[in-house]
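Sample entry follows:

_____
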Amino acid sequence: MIQTAAIIGSILFLVVICFYILAATGAPLGDYMMGGKYKILPKKLRIMVSAAVFIQVLAIIVLLQGGGVIASVLPAGILKVLCYIFSIYFSLNVLMNLFSESKKEKMLMTPLSLITAVCFWIVTLNL
């Protein structure tokens, strides 16, 4: 179950990463993120989205290590702390998406972020 949660969460993160990369390169997907204010993200928000991609890649690595899918290079205590940090962060992300002014963001990103948060909590609570 833990490995399955880690794999499902990682696959969903990859979907979101692709989506964010497209938005960061100017694709008209801005109404699905960052409150939906812009159809095409302005340069400053593209930089923020690019930073989010880095965080999500790191989250994938931590999730797969915590789930035992890939070998962990981190000490168990540090891995557990990182898993808790990401679990809390992505749980808060669910709330931010849920209360977004953008209907598109609510409809797409809320379920994605909820599933990834649950996957993270499954892994975290079983470490």
Notes: Helices lie at 2-24, 43-66, 76-98, 103-125. The CA atoms of residues 77 and 127 lie 10 Å apart. The radius of gyration is 15 Å. Residues 2-125 form one domain.
